[in-house]
Predict the structure.
Amino acid sequence: MVDNPLRNLPSVDQLLGHPLLQKMVDQVSHSAVTQKVRTVLDQVREGVLAATGEVHVPTPQEIAERVAGWMQRAEAEKLQVVVNATGVLLHTGLGRAPLPKAACDRIAALSQRYGSVELDLAEGTRGSRTAALEALLCELTGAEAATVVNNCAAATMLALGALAGGREVIVSRGQLVEIGGSYRLPEVMTVAGCHLREVGTTNKTRIDDYARAIGAETGALLRVHPSNYVVYGFAEEASLKDMVQLAQQKQVAMIDDIGSGALIDFSRFGLQREPVVKDSVAAGATVTLFSGDKLLGGPQCGIVVGQKQAIKKLTQHPMMRAVRIDKLTMAALQATLELYRDPEQAIESIPLLRLLNTDVANLRLRGGRIVEQLSGLESLSSVALVETQATMGGGSLPTQPLPSVAVAVTAKSLSASQLSALCRSADTPVVGRIQDDRLLLDLKTVAPTEDRMLVAALQLVR
């Protein structure tokens, strides 16, 4: 009689009693661990039955390790709070701009209760979803009207479809951008139902190029701020003022996509050439488009401000419902915009602006304290404070580095990659960057309250 190799498989209850899986039950839940145990046992049975030669039947220890490893990987893939020590302020992979406390408080309050999302409380009738946001945006930018959608790509698509659908849109060849995720302007224009008309060259496009291209089929001129690259040297572009004047003369829309969305002048932080929303509105653009989660420092959304009739066309377009924002985005954006009523309060309260406004001397002081706390760890071969450069990220200001300070670490028994992975496995994962075979923890993107978490992560090194 042939011995059945499956006879030695442990039962579900036996495996659940294993210390490794007991720990997983405490971390996750009994039902989730039970489900994973059954799945792994089914896989083992299928493998044994499908085998044509000698087969290894896993021991209870091996099965428990397989289940625990699977569940630990699944837990690690969940959305978690991390410490951004990469030196990239608007790190897309880490969620771009962290929200101000006022926005978080507003989200918490509205998420737990009902809210006047589309109710006019004075009249008791259905109201506009973005009425309160519109009033704030008009106050802060000088625009006649405004609306908000779920991101700036949606804002671009909606503006093109509503203002120039079925017609030509004239764009400089030097502004036919591609951003992250293979988002290409020509393709977006096609989806919006517009016909692309390229003018000028990669490095030079003059107002005369636009003027010669305008015809009976033209619906709009589009200017796109190339926030994620810069053309240097022999270059020229038409001014917004000239483009607005031409659009008005020819009675076509002037769409100004400024991308990152600065509500204040970022030159105060030593950063140049970033368009300010007010300036675009004042120049007379039909609509101005920008992001909420980049330089504005708020939640992910796409904001459109401009002329009343143009905004009305956007809000009445069939696509509007598909790209509208939810109540939590409304709450976060409203609270963030309210802070901009006092620019100094905004700089103090909005995390992105506060990080930008932190000087290098402050970073050196904090870095010195961190180095002192780590200097006694025998598992680390070197801990030093180094001058470095942070970046804005998020497709903004690509050629303008920010002076910063980083804690540079090497371990005796781990490579830089292994050390980086270990830090990412901490209770609060710490994400740094590797440079010159060292792990750099850049303090420009680390809040002072997170310094202790850097220390805790490196104390895991053995």
